């Protein structure tokens, strides 16, 4: 350290202040010092059930103290009895509980001594109690007369307090006590006067010593009470205090203790005890009486309780009094204790000792445990003070001050250590300290020195002491750096010096970044039963990573990890997840981040939203016949204000148990005036509503009954219904129970024919309908219905017009005519029937028509009727969906709710020719390099006389680009094939064929094909349908010497995969003559037939296995995945398909065997009239497609191959 001083050339400079080490720190044990008692026993009881008893005395000092004991003021040798166990360097000893140990009872004192002085302990009293026992004695029975006073003495044995005394019988039942019979503080049982039922032979006194775990019983006592011939009434006489004590006595009580004053009196009748304080008033709330007023008890006695107290025993005969003069005394207590310390040579010493008590305590000074002889003592000594000047090393000693009075002794010691040593720095050199920015740093430099040392701190290489306001030097030498900054990091030195020597140590300080946290979300609002996730985001110094910890608190209390049994609250590092939030979860959640150097907290208040609590305390006021005021107390809103309150009612007469809404009160209103109906027995409840939802209903209010009254309203919705022509049923909506207003509700029904001046017909009914019979058909009536009850009638009712029962119309429309609009649509006109012939409310007209013959072939048709309904009173209608070039008949009838009237006479009309439908098929028979042969079928329906066909074709390519369209007119209607020439080689064409009549041409049928390349065969395809029941199928129109691919495809398979495919080559003409001989041989023909049959069998088996079972719609399957290669085949087999998106109004499906089945006509074409579906405009123009009842065709597998086609490629 001297080298450090020289190299840094640091000189001692001004220091902050001088520390007084006398009271600063404890003297290091390495420094020579006086003995000091560090631990000692106090009053101790040697219980008989203990194995041993330890009396402690420990002390410290340098040199190590030795120990001596005194007992009752005389030296006590610990080796005098083998039952005493001692310990090295300790004054503590143990007495083993063997044999008789009563000789160990006494007051002990421990002395600890070394070369510098002697320390003395306080007195330690050891009490060796004897086992308490009642003496064996024979107790004579007591014979007394009725009314005498008796005392049963207990005289319990002595023992360690507390002592509890009980008077019981032999069955351990307590003797009842009251004002007449009571036990004194000493345990005696007093009878103010005896009664005959006091006689018994088992009065037992039990004495319990809890600390000794002992209960002892006195021998039973017998009391015999005999009846006296006269009543011994007498005035009270005090038994405690006895008369011998006089009219007054003195009582001394220790301050802070319990004052017990006792008065017990005898007399007949039984005396009553009362207490007063003669000198002053009894303190309020302090004194209490016990034992039926016979004991006055004051706890925590103070000087104010001193004075004279008087007890008075009184009965009707007289009274007795006694005064207690209470004196409050106290044991000694210190006002000023002598204080020792460390003193340097040449200083002065003053020790003060002052105590108070009652009586006044005496003060005695001792030096090293021995009384001070003022004659030889070099200092000054008085009762309260000792002083020494110019202390020297040999003045080191232990001074004891002892204060005593009759209530006790107290001892205070003062160690006066006179030392002359260089500074001792008790803090280790080179300590490392750390703190965070903004916090205070504490650098320790604990020093012991005598004389006191000067202390200063320097930083790094500076020799200047730290003197800024942020630096503070504490009394123990610690340097506090307030509000630290990063630049406070570095090396610090602590310097200590006194007149004897000097010392120094260094310390290193590191400043870390402060920890920062934030909790998100901040103050969230969460619905009850929802979940919330709180996240604690933190930043901390990387050096503090290992000590960093996060914890959560709720309302200041630590949240244990996964605290709830069902793990509803889960803490995972920096997150706190609360599922199914409850109202109890509301509060302030604090995230606490701590490191070894700092701790910070951030909080977030969780607000739980819930429906309000139910309202409470419903009260009714302002009772009126038709109103009452309801008031209530709102329940807790749970952080969402109440928007409104719903008042509901339940009435017990009509709908008991059913709650209905009556009204609503806005906002936080807690009262509402309720409008009520007469003749109701109400009870109410309230539901509060906030933004979260509705509360549970409140408890119902008291019931409130309103008086009856006449009806306020009449029935509504009066109407006439009739099922028979000559009756009228009048119906109305009955009054609700809340509208009846009273008992005996009936309805007065009044009616008369409209326009006929007659009196009203009236009838009272209880139901809500009335039937009149034998009324004329469909005649208007005036009707009114009035509500009546036992208290009167309702208001004058309104008149309603109704009609009697209807009948079907009895006339047919006339003047029916038909205008032809086009080949499929006509417009029908008629004259409506007279209103009086409708015989009811006219619903509309029905137009029926049926086809009688075709104009094309003149064949008669079986009549298949169709009809359209036109609602309302009108005289025309449009009929769509007719077949062109046909003859029809048509009728019109009127109808009402009862049914249809008679039809008009049939009208015959003919539809003109229309355009034909598309040809049934189009086939490409063969291709050449520049020509192609087309073959087509007749149209499905000609719709007139065919005039010929139009052939069209154009070039197409893979990109769907098309060339110009070329037309060829075929005037001969019998021509069904055509050879086109002048085509380009290796070119793809699309061909169109459409049939024509005089009206025009219909939709075309199309096909595509590719012409042959130069010098090669043409490529085309032929598609034909195969019946699944066929065993074989011939393929015709093939070119000789040409190679073909034959493919069998299921028509209705989704993927259209081939189930059979083979390549064949037709026999060329050049080879025909060569093989003519073979082909005509029987064996060759048989072989070919066998091969063909085997092939078909294999084909059938394969197809059955792949197509086994199931029903499926041909059309639906094809619509899902159309096969481009099979599209033309589909056009041939199913006629309603075409390249155009247009569909015919009415079509048919070709069956799997190629037959045409006509679809069944619809029963009604209501969709196209102005009926319920309104498919026509007002002018009758057609706005929708005719749709009859179509049936989907289903193909059912029968085990053989289903419908298939064979596309052929040349």
UniProtKB/TrEMBL annotation:
This is Neural cell adhesion molecule L1-like protein. GO terms for molecular function: cell-cell adhesion mediator activity. The chain crosses the membrane at residues 1083-1104. Residues 694-715 are annotated as: Disordered. It holds the Pfam family Bravo_FIGEY. Gene3D superfamilies: Immunoglobulins. One of its GO terms (cellular component) is axon. May interact with L1CAM. May interact with ITGB1/ITGA1 heterodimer and ITGB1/ITGA2 heterodimer as well as with ANK3. SUPFAM superfamilies: Fibronectin type III (SSF49265), Immunoglobulin (SSF48726). Residues 35-125, 129-222, 236-329, 332-417, 423-510, 515-607 form the Ig-like domain. The keyword Transmembrane applies. It comes from the Eukaryota. CDD domains: FN3 (cd00063), Ig3_L1-CAM_like (cd05731), IgI_2_L1-CAM_like (cd05845). One of its GO terms (biological process) is brain development. Keywords: Cell adhesion, Cell membrane, Developmental protein, Differentiation, Disulfide bond, Extracellular matrix, Glycoprotein, Immunoglobulin domain, Membrane, Neurogenesis, Phosphoprotein, Repeat, Secreted, Signal, Transmembrane, Transmembrane helix. Belongs to the immunoglobulin superfamily. L1/neurofascin/NgCAM family. It is found in: Cell membrane; Secreted, Extracellular space, Extracellular matrix. Residues 614-709, 714-807, 812-914, 918-1015 form the Fibronectin type-III domain. InterPro entries: FN3_dom, FN3_sf, Ig-like_dom, Ig-like_dom_sf, Ig-like_fold, Ig_I-set, Ig_sub, Ig_sub2. It is a single-pass type I membrane protein. It comes from Anser cygnoides. Residues 1-24 form the signal peptide.
């Amino acid at each position: 350290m001297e080298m450090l001083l020289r190299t840094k050339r640091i000189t001692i400079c001004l220091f902050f202040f001088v520390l007084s080490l006398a009271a600063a720190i404890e003297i290091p044990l390495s420094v020579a010092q006086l003995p000091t008692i560090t631990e000692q026993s106090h009053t101790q009881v040697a219980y008989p059930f203990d194995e041993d008893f330890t009396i402690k005395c420990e002390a410290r000092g340098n040199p190590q103290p030795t120990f001596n004991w005194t007992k009752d003021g005389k030296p006590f040798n610990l080796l005098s009895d083998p039952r005493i166990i001692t310990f090295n360097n300790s004054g503590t000893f143990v007495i083993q509980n063997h044999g008789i140990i009563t000789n160990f009872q006494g007051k002990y004192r421990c002395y600890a001594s070394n070369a510098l002085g002697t320390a003395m302990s306080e007195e330690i009293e050891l009490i060796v109690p004897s086992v308490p026992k009642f003496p064996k004695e024979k107790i004579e029975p007591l014979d007394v007369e009725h009314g005498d006073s008796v005392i049963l003495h207990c005289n319990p044995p002595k023992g360690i307090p507390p002592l509890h005394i009980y008077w019981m019988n032999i069955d351990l039942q307590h003797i009842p006590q009251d004002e007449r019979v009571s036990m004194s503080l000493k345990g005696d049982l007093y009878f103010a006067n005896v009664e005959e039922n006091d006689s018994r032979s088992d009065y037992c006194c039990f004495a319990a010593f809890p600390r000794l775990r002992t209960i002892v019983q006195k021998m039973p006592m017998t009391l015999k009470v005999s009846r006296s011939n006269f009543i011994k009434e007498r005035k009270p006489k005090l038994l405690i205090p006895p008369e011998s004590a006089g009219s007054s006595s003195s009582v001394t009580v220790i301050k802070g203790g319990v004052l017990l004053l006792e008065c017990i009196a005898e007399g007949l009748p039984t005396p009553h005890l009362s207490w007063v304080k003669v000198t002053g008033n009894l303190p309020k709330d302090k004194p209490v009486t016990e034992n039926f007023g016979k004991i006055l008890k004051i706890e925590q006695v103070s000087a104010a309780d001193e004075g004279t107290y008087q007890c008075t025993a009184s009965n009707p005969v007289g009274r007795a009094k006694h005064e207690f003069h209470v004196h409050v005394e106290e044991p000694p207590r210190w006002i000023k204790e002598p204080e020792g310390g460390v003193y340097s040579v040449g200083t002065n010493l003053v020790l003060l000792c002052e105590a108070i008590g009652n009586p006044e305590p005496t003060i005695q000074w001792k030096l090293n445990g021995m009384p001070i002889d003022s004659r030889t003592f070099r200092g000054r000594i008085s009762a309260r003070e000792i002083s020494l000047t110019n202390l020297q090393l040999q003045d080191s000693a232990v001074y004891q001050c002892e204060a005593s009075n009759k209530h006790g002794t107290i001892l205070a010691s003062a160690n006066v250590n006179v030392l002359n040593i260089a500074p001792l720095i008790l803090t280790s050199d080179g300590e490392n300290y750390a703190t965070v920015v903004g916090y205070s740093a504490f650098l320790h430099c604990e020093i012991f020195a005598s004389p006191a040392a000067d202390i200063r701190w320097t930083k790094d290489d500076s020799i200047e002491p730290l003197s800024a306001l942020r630096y503070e030097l504490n009394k123990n030498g610690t340097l506090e750096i307030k509000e630290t900054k990063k630049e406070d990091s570095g090396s610090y030195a602590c310097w200590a010096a006194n007149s004897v020597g000097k010392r120094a140590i260094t310390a290193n300080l590191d400043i870390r970044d402060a920890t920062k946290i934030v909790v998100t979300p901040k103050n969230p609002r969460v619905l009850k039963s929802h979940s919330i996730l709180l996240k604690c985001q933190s930043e901390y110094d990387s050096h503090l990573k290992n000590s960093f910890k996060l914890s959560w608190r709720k309302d200041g209390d630590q949240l244990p990890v996964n605290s709830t049994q069902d793990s509803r609250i889960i803490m995972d590092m920096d997150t706190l997840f609360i599922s199914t939030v409850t109202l109890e979860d509301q509060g302030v959640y604090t995230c606490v981040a701590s490191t070894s150097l700092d701790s910070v907290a951030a909080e977030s208040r969780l607000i739980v939203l819930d429906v309000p609590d139910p309202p409470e305390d419903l009260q009714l006021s302002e009772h009126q016949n038709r109103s009452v005021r309801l008031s209530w107390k709102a329940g807790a809103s749970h952080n969402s204000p109440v928007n409104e309150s719903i008042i509901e009612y339940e009435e017990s007469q009509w709908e008991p148990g059913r709650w209905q809404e009556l009204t609503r009160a806005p906002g936080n209103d807690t009262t509402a005036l309720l409008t009520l109906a007469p003749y109701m027995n109400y009870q109410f409840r309230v539901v509060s509503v906030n933004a979260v939802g509705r509360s549970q209903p409140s408890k119902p209010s008291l019931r409130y009954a309103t008086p009856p009254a006449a009806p306020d309203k009449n029935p509504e919705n009066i109407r006439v219904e009739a099922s028979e022509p000559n009756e009228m049923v009048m119906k109305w909506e009955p009054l609700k129970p809340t509208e009846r207003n009273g008992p005996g509700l009936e309805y007065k029904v009044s009616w008369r024919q409209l326009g006929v001046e007659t009196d009203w017909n009236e009838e009272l009914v209880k139901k809500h309908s009335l039937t009149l019979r034998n009324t004329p058909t469909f005649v208007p009536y005036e009707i009114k219905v009035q509500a009546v009850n036992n208290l009167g009638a309702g208001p004058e009712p309104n008149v309603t017009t109704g009609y009697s029962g209807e009948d079907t119309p009895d006339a047919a429309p006339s003047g029916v005519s038909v205008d032809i609009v086009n080949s499929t649509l006509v417009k029908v006109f008629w004259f409506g029937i007279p209103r009086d012939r409708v015989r009811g409310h006219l619903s509309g007209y029905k137009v029926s028509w049926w086809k009688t013959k075709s104009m094309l072939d003149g064949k008669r048709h079986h009549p298949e009727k169709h009809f359209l309904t036109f609602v309302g009173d009108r005289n025309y209608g449009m009929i769509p969906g007719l077949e062109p070039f046909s003859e029809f008949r048509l009728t019109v009838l009127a109808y009402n709710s009862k049914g249809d009237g008679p039809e008009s006479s049939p009208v015959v009309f003919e539809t003109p020719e229309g355009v034909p439908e598309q040809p049934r098929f189009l086939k490409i028979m063969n291709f050449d390099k520049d020509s192609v042969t087309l073959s087509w079928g007749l149209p499905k329906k000609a719709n007139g006389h065919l005039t010929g066909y139009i052939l069209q074709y154009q070039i197409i390519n893979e990109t769907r680009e098309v060339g110009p369209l070329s037309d060829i007119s075929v005037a001969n209607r019998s021509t069904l094939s055509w050879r086109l020439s002048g085509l380009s080689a290796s070119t793809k064409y699309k061909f169109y064929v459409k049939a024509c009549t005089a009206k025009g041409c219909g939709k075309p049928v199309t096909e595509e094909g590719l012409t042959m390349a130069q010098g090669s065969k043409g490529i085309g395809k032929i598609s034909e349908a195969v019946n699944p029941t066929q065993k074989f199928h011939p393929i015709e129109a093939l070119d000789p010497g040409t190679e073909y691919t034959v493919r069998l495809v299921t028509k209705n398979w989704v993927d259209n995969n081939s189930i059979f495919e083979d390549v064949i080559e037709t026999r060329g003409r050049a080879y025909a003559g060569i093989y003519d001989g073979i082909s005509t041989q029987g064996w060759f023909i048989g072989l070919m037939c066998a091969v063909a049959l085997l092939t078909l069998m294999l084909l059938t088996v394969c197809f059955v296995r792949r197509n086994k079972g199931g029903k499926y719609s041909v059309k639906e399957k094809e619509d899902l995945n159309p096969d481009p290669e099979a599209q033309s085949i589909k056009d041939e087999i199913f006629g309603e398909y075409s390249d155009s998106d247009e569909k015919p109004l009415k079509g048919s499906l070709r069956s799997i065997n190629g037959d045409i089945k006509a679809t069944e006509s619809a029963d009604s074409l209501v969709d196209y009239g102005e009926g319920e579906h309104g498919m026509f405009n007002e002018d009758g123009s057609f706005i929708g497609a005719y749709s009859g009842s179509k049936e989907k065709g289903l193909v059912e597998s029968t085990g053989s191959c289903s419908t298939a086609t064979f596309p052929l490629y040349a």
